[in-house]
Q: What sequence folds into this?
């Protein structure tokens, strides 16, 4: 299975090919600080800390995180800088609708 990261115009084309008209779209970069703070608010400090300790006590996780070479870490950071999410509001085009 191939996975491809799509840009906003590519997502618009996917919606169009599926018979939808995109009324509006907003693309947001993934904000790791907001994600971190959101997890703390949702789970509470004690539960979040417990989950982190459990993850870091797992030998596979430690090997994965701490034994990455510099190039792998750099590549991961670069990849994650492209990750985000989009909100697309669209409507199904009927046979009597026209696209502008």
A:
């Amino acid at each position: 299975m191939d996975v491809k990261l799509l840009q906003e115009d590519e997502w618009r084309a996917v919606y169009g090919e599926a018979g939808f008209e995109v009324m509006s779209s907003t693309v947001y970069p993934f904000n790791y600080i907001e994600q971190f703070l959101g997890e703390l608010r949702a789970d509470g400090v004690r539960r979040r800390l417990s989950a982190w300790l459990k993850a870091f006590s797992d030998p596979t996780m430690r090997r994965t995180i701490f034994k990455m070479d510099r190039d792998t870490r750099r590549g991961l950071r670069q990849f994650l800088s492209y990750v985000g999410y989009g909100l697309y509001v669209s409507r199904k085009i009927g046979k009597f609708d026209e696209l502008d």
Notes: The longest strand covers residues 20-29. The chain has a mean pLDDT of 85.
